[in-house]
């Protein structure tokens, strides 16, 4: 078939980050897959150039009023971008929206169900608002549509052994010296130096429970007196812990405990909405069903007045299943979803949209997906294309590369050794090409041969686990081996390992993709501890104090306090960062930059990549850390790159590098191949083996079949997801799993191995 030509988006002279002044064409209304080792520049091209420029131009079309409220995107470093279209970025950022955001609201399926119930539900509850827990008409009055009620634990809000002056009020906003604190301590009702437990009953009541305006304080400066609990309930109780920063948040979580709302049973809905039924089911019943079952329940609604809505809603729910999310229910809070799940939920919403001629960009959409579901994900990408959109996907999975209309391979290496287009064209050519991707695709696939499998030195038992969907699972995890836990998404892998392992093995180290604390000023150098020997080296060689060579100490640029950037908080948006004009992003004050070791300043060192630093440093303690960073595939990172710019996969591997110490430890890794190219996966596997050989135990949750094949022991969960999963369907070696072939993982492994 001859395909129509819709022209191309032309990128000319792209130089963002490490891009090497490159030109590429991205065919419109086609599926383009961008490949290459990690750090080769895929994101710089797709997200930081294409998507950023489209976003910037879109924002420029808004009124000045709106623009003032939008983050200002800097112009990407590129000569020209022609025929660009409006962009939608479907990434792995968690879905926000707090407790009011659910799978139902995020996919728009919830809105369709509400319309269906408002027309066909009996008795009728009214319009569709009456079925929305985010609308005053529809929400349960007791919990305000949150499904949970909060209870204040008084014993955590005050310390009765202390006096007011001594910090008896433990919530930070009520702390000593704060305005609220003054309204109690200086009210004239109490002696602020007396411990609370010595208060009379009346004083206790006044301190804790007096309503606003009920009492006039003896001190006329305290204009409106209100008890601690009354004030806390009014100002804070309805908020979510996420709304607060560190200390306040910790205190809040200690003080407020949450439980299912007794009125609505957690369904969030008011009485009228809960009692309106279709086929004997309420909207709350449907919201609680897992998507795989919900499809049939929706299809069974045969009221002709809602037929088009039913068809639409059923199709949307079906897409959840196709994307391997059939185990989710619509009432599941989006805050509990993983990055990969979040990305696929967003994808469902876009597939239901009728807009066309958009540019969709995806960031590794197969993350978290079992090989069984990757194929179907590919079909949905093609569906999005066939609705008239241009789809660009950054991806490492060969199953997605193979269906691409066009491939762009970045490389040849990472960091400054990358940034070039090494191949452009159809998949067939990519496989044959002399690129690392081509080599990776041609490499033979083998499993760990039976004799090579390690004998465990003992076992750790998880007994009768039954969190979420787990059905009384008992497993023995081998000590001193590499165990891979497999199973389709939603089968219960995280529930089992993350949920139960810490109870039986408290010293387990979970290395995941979550952000690193305080990471706006953290860098690979500070995070790994490598800065200490580097500072010592500079101090010894120059005679200046070591603190001068730290961007978090005396050496800091006074303008940006060593961050290199100035961060502006925007109330309702992601903040904006701009490069510090004083140090021009170098973090250090001039004085620190005057001292040189082998011709380089400390600021120069921060700009070196790990690979360059390995050539520069001869000192053992510094090299040891650099080698570890290189081992985990991060040799392209600069020592001073802000950790907030790292992807989830890079963060996880950085944590791994920061942890690598002498043996005897127990590590859990959650999909460590995220963001890794085929060639990088080989390195990662070698590293995992070395860790085990050094006496550590590794449990890895993974879908990547190369990692599965490299395991000593496999625990396969399933057979399906949600209530169809939660059981151990296979335990044994990779060879036995492939030979058995009765499980999804076994079947795919057998097919994969040559
Ligand atoms: P990929 O997506 O292929 O993994 P990236 O485009 O993320 O690669 O990175 C290419 C290079 O640009 C790497 O050396 C990376 O460290 C660097 N880089 C990426 N983002 C930033 C940033 N925000 N600031 C500085 N350097 C960056
Ligand atoms: P996997 O790790 O294999 O993808 P999970 O352990 O995340 O599987 O999920 C197993 C089951 O537990 C699924 O039905 C999922 O919807 C449910 N589940 C997981 N986390 C939560 C949560 N925070 N709240 C409610 N249900 C959850
Ligand atoms: Zn309620
Ligand atoms: Zn500065």
TrEMBL record:
It comes from the Bacteria. It holds the Pfam family ABC_tran. Gene3D superfamilies: ABC transporter ATPase domain-like, ABC transporter ATPase like domain, P-loop containing nucleotide triphosphate hydrolases. The keyword DNA damage applies. It is found in: Cytoplasm. GO terms for biological process: DNA repair. Keywords: ATP-binding, Cytoplasm, DNA damage, DNA excision, DNA repair, DNA-binding, Excision nuclease, Nucleotide-binding, Repeat. Coiled coil: none annotated. InterPro entries: ABC_transporter-like_ATP-bd, ABC_transporter-like_CS, P-loop_NTPase. Residues 4-437, 453-744 form the ABC transporter domain. PANTHER family: DRUG RESISTANCE ABC TRANSPORTER, UVRABC SYSTEM PROTEIN A. Belongs to the ABC transporter superfamily. UvrA family. This is UvrABC system protein A. It comes from Jiangella ureilytica.
